[in-house]
């Protein structure tokens, strides 16, 4: 099974656990709607790639970890889209959850997906409870307060933003979770994998800023220019398009250099390079803009 | 240290973990605001009482469990109060979180408290990782979909409500979590404690319906008559006040009869009787109404 199919199957299994038995049908439908069809599934792909590079000796724990991380990511998208945040009508090319199902169900969908993520991990322990616990510790740290994506979103309500804490929490946190959880799922230490996650997160943030500045709503599958609209800090407004492109390239080189020594080091470097190509706007797009 | 001080201290320690380091100040303040000063802390009191009845051989795990359960309960209150649900301006005699801090911060406060609950449990494992994992499994099951309080709230968006699933999930779930987690924290099996939790949950629901029908907003510390207003099923509208009083008394007798054999069985029965007295509207109130 290819990586992408493996991850989609893991996410589907996790969602099915949240919908078993006599559950309220609309909320049940909204859970599935919020997570499928998937976007690029970048975070679980990184997680699984790191686990594979480290030997992946307990594939069922790796799958639970990748699904739980994707559930939390999808939950954050559902809540970020709410009227009181981005008020986004569209996500991944279809109506956002609160538009398709209602605002109460969107709040509950986010809540349920977060909780389901921890349920999935708690049930995947098998004969290695320490691994499952370490995964729960990392996922909760990188999701909540004071270090995770909730904190990142929380910074947007402050008069004075700590920019470095903001970016690390808002975008970096779940990429750090991805690399750390990949290592933990395969029985390795989390810490040596922190820098790779942090750098991929930075690259992703800069690439997102570039896309937000260069593409329109149709190409993005979500409203464009949201950062400018909401006054959020943005690499393109700070460095310009060329400066941001240079920064992206530097960050990705640093990411590859940071990969810890492991059996699958070479393939992992190749995966990061592949993402780098995908993340970087093509010469064609840049010409069209000029 | 008395039970109530022990529980408040555990909750304060848990919240402090969510506010350490460079965190966004307003969200950080909202986490504390949402959980203090506490209400009756009924769920953690039941949890800790069951743990004590079972020997409480790892008090730090019991405290983590009781704090995590209270965090999830407080999170549910914050989200239930949101404009898209009950639109409640007041909670526990002070402005609700979205009124005091803003709607975005209320959404994030609920999210952060849920995540913090699992973080607290993951860090309390000590030398018994299986206990921490079992606690996480129970708390996530009784919080999320398809069995937990999220499902309970989700039923309110259905055209056809499965009443028994609705009540079990909406109110019963966290009481079942309380008794099961108390037993697990002390190294005992969860299952024999399910009925006690379910019956206390039923009693609490009926008592809440009675209070909602008999008291005004000032005495409740929250808007009265919410069930009638939102068309939610209610024991008083179905059975009348006298019928609901009789039902409450029957449920509490059943709760006491269901207590599994354990070293602290007698004290636990006494605690349930004490709650029964507190939950039951006094003759004075009933006379005043007549």
What is this structure, in a nutshell?
Two copies of one chain form a homodimer. Chain A is mostly helical and 290 residues long. In chain A, 71% of the residues lie in helices and 1% in strands.
Name some characteristics of this structure.
homodimer; 290 residues; mainly alpha; Farnesyl Diphosphate Synthase; two-stranded antiparallel sheet; 15 helices; 2 strands; 1% strand; globular
**CATH T-level fold name of chain A:** Farnesyl Diphosphate Synthase
CATH homologous superfamily title of chain A: Farnesyl Diphosphate Synthase
Neighbour order of strands in the largest sheet of chain A: 1-2
N-to-C order of helices and strands of chain A: HHHHEEHHHHHHHHHHH
Q: Work out the strand percent of chain A.
A: under 5%
* Largest interface summary: A-B, 60 and 60 residues
Any idea what the radius of gyration of chain A is? 18 Å
Question: Into how many domains do the coordinates of chain A divide?
Answer: 1
Protein name (chains A, B): Polyprenyl synthetase family protein
Family (chains A, B): Belongs to the FPP/GGPP synthase family.
InterPro entries (chains A, B): Polyprenyl_synt, Polyprenyl_synt_CS
Cofactor (chains A, B): Mg(2+)
